[in-house]
Structures are given as structure tokens and as C-alpha cells.
Amino acid sequence: MLGLGFLDRWLGGASLTAYGVLFLPVSVLTALWVRPGDLLVAPVVLPIAFAVGLFPVADGDGGPGSYAMGLLTALATQAGWLYAGTLVAALLVLARRVVLVAHRRARSRRQPAAS
Fold first, then answer.
1. Mean pLDDT across the stretch 74-102?
2. Domain tally for the chain?
3. Tens digits of per-residue pLDDT, 8-63?
4. 81: which residues sit within 8 A by CB, 6+ positions away?
5. Does 115 reside within a domain?
6. If you average pLDDT over residues 59-84, what whole number do you get?
7. DSSP output for the chain
8. Coil vs helix vs strand at 61
9. For 37-72, b where at least 16 C-beta lie within 10 A, e where not — what string?
10. pTM (2 decimals)?
């Protein structure tokens, strides 16, 4: 997301909407590519990545106070994209987890118990 933030700043002049739209496919890809053992981590990491990626896109006139205010304003105004991406990722991760558990149960039923 940090790379996409820099790309957004370079190409589009730091459009927060474009950054939010780019966050959605990143959320989907993260939820689909994460390892099965780390499924529950994806919905936690995505909001952190969103916030880190806002650093190059946030508006600040000068000075750390102005930059911090721009970052907080960007987080507040783009919360819809953040919630949407996190929700999509959480639903995909939950679906993957249900399928994984179902496969494990089916496999354990097929194998006879060792005596």
C-alpha cells in the first residue's frame, strides 16, 4: 500500500479516492493469497497497511503538525474504503477458513482410526 500511495501521488496528484479504490483489490488479493495458517491475520494487517500507505497521499502544507492533521483527516474521510476493504477481506478469509475446516473434517472421517 505504501508503494501504491507513492504511485497515486506521482500519477494522480495524491487522489484519496483513487487510493481508496486501489485498496479494494489489494484487500481481495491479500485475503486470497495469505497462507492457510495465517488466515486470521489478513483482516488485521489490512487497516495497518491502509494507514501506512496514506503517508505519501496525505495533505500537509508544512511542518509535522500540519502533516499529522492531513493524515488524520485522510483517515477520517476515507474510512468507508477502509471498512469496505477490511470487510471484503474478512468475508473471504472466513469463507476460506470454513472450506479448510470442512476439508480437514472430511479427510479425518475417511481415514480409519489407528488401533
1. 94
2. 1
3. 888 877 788 888 999 999 999 999 999 988 888 989 999 999 999 998 888 777 78
4. 19, 20, 21, 23, 24, 50
5. no
6. 87
7. -HHHHHHHHHHHSS-HHHHHHHHHHHHHHHHHHS-GGGGGGHHHHHHHHHHHHTTTTS--SSHHHHHHHHHHHHHHHTHHHHHHHHHHHHHHHHHHHHHHHHHHHHHHHHSPPP-
8. coil
9. eebeebbeebbebbeebbbbbbeeeeeeeeeeebbe
10. 0.81
34, three cell numbers? 495469505
The pLDDT assigned to 114 comes to: 58
Q: How far apart are CA 66 and CA 53, in angstroms?
A: 18
Give the chain's length.
Answer: 115
The answer to whether 71 touches 54, Cβ cutoff 8 Å, is yes
**Is 86 a member of any domain?**
yes
Render pLDDT for 43-58 as a digit per residue (tens, 0 to 9).
999 999 999 999 888 8
Q: Which range of residues forms the domain containing residue 87?
A: 2-110
Residue 108 CB: number of other CB atoms within 10 A? Answer: 9
Classify residue 13: in a domain, yes or no.
Answer: yes
